[in-house]
Amino acid sequence: AQQDPQYSQYIYNTVAINPAYAGNRGVTSIVGLHRSQWVGLDGAPRTQSLSIHSPISESKVGLGLSIVNDALGPSQETYIGVDFSYTIDTSDKGKLSFGLKGGGHILDVDFTRLNLFDPTDPRFSQNIDNKISPVIGAGVYYHTDKFYAGLSAPNLIQTDHFNESNNSNGSSFVAEERINYYGIVGYAFDLSDQVKFKPSTLIKAVAGAPLQVDLTANFLFLEKLHLGAAYRWDAAFSGLAGFQVSDSMLIGLAYDRETTDLGNTTFNDGSFE
Length: 273
Known about the structure:
By secondary structure, the chain is an all-beta fold. The protein has strands at about 30-35, 45-55, 60-70, 75-90, 95-110, 130-145, 145-155, 160, 175, 180-185, 190, 195-205, 210-220, 225-230, 235-245, 250-260, 270. The protein has a 15-stranded antiparallel β-sheet that branches. Strands 8-9 form a two-stranded antiparallel ribbon. The chain is globular and about 65 Å long. The two termini are about 20 Å apart.
C-alpha cells in the first residue's frame, strides 16, 4: 500500500518529490535525510535520501541529483534521478518553474525473508536481483517570498516487475509501480519581528490507497529555532524540531506517532526522521 517513501519533513526535502524545485533556493543546496518508520516492527520501512541541487549561474535553469534508498519488508529499492528545472518570472515577486526528472529504479527482493504459506511455490524460489526500470517524472512549482505551491509526479511510468525466470504467466507480476501524485502548498506569516508562522500541506494520491493529507504548522523563532506539529489524516501525529546552526546549515528531527491500530501495539515505537 505504501510504495513511494514517506516524509514528515517534506518542506525541507521538496526536491525529492518535485523536480521543478531544483535550484529554486537560489544557492547550491544539499539535503540528507534518514527515516525509520514504525520502529520495533520487523521489516518496517527505512529510507535514506541524498539530494543536491543548484541554479546554473545567472540562467533560469536549475539542476539536481537525487538518490533514494527505500527498504520495506523483503524488498530494497534505489532511485537515482537527475532533475532539470526552468523558471520564468510571472511578476515582480512570483516565479513559476517547470521540472523534469529522469533516471532509474533498481529493485531487489529477498524472498527468503518471507514466511511463505507454501514454501514450494515456484514464484518465490528465486530472488529478484538488480531489476532496473526507467524513471521519468515531471512537476511545476510556483513561489514568491512568502507563498509556494507545487504539483508533481516523480515517476510517470507504471512498471510491472516480473519474476521472468519462474513465472510463465505473462499477465502476472511481483510488483507494479503506480503513479504517485503530489500537491504541496505553504505560506510564511510574520507574527512579529522574532516569530514566523509557516503552515503547509502535502497531499499525496495513488490508485489503490487512501488519499494522504499532511497538515503541518511550523514556527520559526529568532531565525534559529524551528518548532512545529503535524497531522497526517487518519494516520499519525508528528512533532518537528530544527535548529539553524549557521546561515548555511540546518539540522532537524521529526517523530511520528500513529493514530491507527498499529500505533497501539507494543512492538511499534513510532517513526523517527
